[in-house]
Amino acid sequence: MSAEVTPSNHDQAAPRDALTKLAGLLQADMEACSKAIVSRMDSPVALIGQVAAHIVAAGGKRLRPLLTLAAARMCGYAGGQRHVHLAACVEFIHTATLLHDDVVDESRLRRGLDSANAIFDNKTPILVGDFMFARAFQLMVEDGSLHVLRILCTASATIAEGEVLQLVTQHDLTTTEERYLDVVRGKTAALFSAAAQVGAVVAARPLAEEDALASYGQDLGIAFQLVDDALDYAADQAVLGKTVGDDFREGKVTLPVLIAYADGTEEERAFWRRVLEDGTQTDEDLPHAMQLLERHRAIARTVERAAGFVRSAQAALSIFPPSALRDALTDVATYTIQRVH
Amino acid sequence: MSAEVTPSNHDQAAPRDALTKLAGLLQADMEACSKAIVSRMDSPVALIGQVAAHIVAAGGKRLRPLLTLAAARMCGYAGGQRHVHLAACVEFIHTATLLHDDVVDESRLRRGLDSANAIFDNKTPILVGDFMFARAFQLMVEDGSLHVLRILCTASATIAEGEVLQLVTQHDLTTTEERYLDVVRGKTAALFSAAAQVGAVVAARPLAEEDALASYGQDLGIAFQLVDDALDYAADQAVLGKTVGDDFREGKVTLPVLIAYADGTEEERAFWRRVLEDGTQTDEDLPHAMQLLERHRAIARTVERAAGFVRSAQAALSIFPPSALRDALTDVATYTIQRVH
């Protein structure tokens, strides 16, 4: 493949199909990665294969493994299939966290299909998630780089810390924006960051390039989650692939809410406290919450914050020479905020 | 410490305090291990520390880390504190599985105290378990041995497979003994085996000694679980530190039940199907089940099976020269079956 040496001819419009374009540049790698994911989920225990097949069949964007593959190729990696196997690890870690998240959040939809806990029960996804997590580490050990293992172990611990912190901030409107961002850095950005950084590691690039890709992934991940939190109040269910208003019903305190709460009248604040802290909700409450978010431009302001992280992510790529893959990674960052209609 | 070079003066009576004796031979190591466990559970997220402190305060026998320490010292390890850190890893992996098991089984007691899910909720132990699992891998990466990582990652995947297989066999009286033993090998014996094997690895002993310790741990783990399954129908709750009859209420198909079912009359089999497969139980059913187990000597026969694994575990130690630690490990195997009154 010649993608990483093609000179930049960057379309500033950053098309909405940025992800498709990036995946297209990495088509062979993505196919190899999908095969690795399927073949390495094997277990003599049939139920593990069934759960894994369900969640893999649901697809998803495969954004995280795509970051590993893109970063490795942009860094000139051409030494074998390490990037493919590590991209599969990254997806396994992500899948394990999804299985556990859906149990914790009692979600019924995932990637537009019934969630594993909706189809099986709560027990199965807890244990299959543990298997996928362990299998991810087995794959990393096979790869044999302690540096890669350190990056992805640290990310895994940080993810779990972010998830626990999210539990603590749930139903708590005194949560500060900084603490909210700590949750986001943990539950989402840590894996984006590690996924991108690992690409530089397999390509044996200098630490400065590792750090640049780690920063890119980190800021991309934050932007991605901010927009996800906005979409929970703004998207079509069909587009989102999960239920609109999930965060609201679960009493999650996200940036749109923090903005509307900070700017709200005393009556509005009493509303937020009732629905998110006390958890007393009626059918009219979600539409009313959306009106309040609109009144305070909370969705737009959340996306503006996300745009700041997108610019920062894109700036981190500047140490790399221009290439089609660098452009595609730049566009993927822009795409993140274009998901809001 | 001179324990590993002291000539054998083996008390064949295998005192009931075999665990205390083993821990006594390793007192400094066990104290260092306890310190490592406490210090490495640290997290800026306070709730993680609270859950960890709760489960650590409950104590437990620390049998698995003890195996790592004993194996390392018996193999002559004197090169530093690697065995201590890896023993802490083993305990972290074990603790993570306990937290998840108690959610899956809806247990209310653990180590004689309220379980984490009883005190907090179901969400917290799922996420804190994930953190402990990730933290265990971080500690292993710090240790820096890919061989150790491979052993403990494989064990972790095998544990999860065993737990999933246990879900599949639950409520299913057509489960074969072989399949039941697969569950036991996964959920319990894999970590015992890995814990002991790692001791030989840090001492840089030949593969034959690694294998011998892996076999010892494997068979000890099977014996331990068989006896645990017997105790679920036979012990005092105070002695067991968990609720008697848990397996029965959860419809777990264990060896005592398989023995009584195989030898039972048609009426007895109908009873087992109603209480374990249909899950329709009254207060009189547990005492009746215990009578049936007594009638078919199912507890005694389970312990006899366990005794076979104990002998096999002890035989695996024969390649090591006699020493106080080898004797203590031999006695610990005997102790396993002496837990049944």
UniProtKB/TrEMBL annotation, chains A, B:
Domain of life: Bacteria
Name this protein carries in UniProt: Octaprenyl diphosphate synthase
Matches recorded under PROSITE patterns: POLYPRENYL_SYNTHASE_1
UniProt keywords, alphabetically: Magnesium, Metal-binding, Transferase
Reactions this protein catalyses: 5 isopentenyl diphosphate + (2E,6E)-farnesyl diphosphate = all-trans-octaprenyl diphosphate + 5 diphosphate
Stored InterPro entries: Isoprenoid_synthase_dom_sf, Polyprenyl_synt, Polyprenyl_synt_CS
Gene Ontology terms describing biological process: isoprenoid biosynthetic process
Cofactor(s) listed: Mg(2+)
Gene Ontology molecular function, alphabetical: all-trans-octaprenyl-diphosphate synthase activity; metal ion binding
Transmembrane regions listed in the UniProt entry: none
One Pfam family linked to the record: polyprenyl_synt
EC number, as in UniProt: 2.5.1.90
Similarity remark: Belongs to the FPP/GGPP synthase family.
Source organism per UniProt: Acidisoma silvae
Biological function: Supplies octaprenyl diphosphate, the precursor for the side chain of the isoprenoid quinones ubiquinone and menaquinone.
Matches recorded under CDD domains: Trans_IPPS_HT
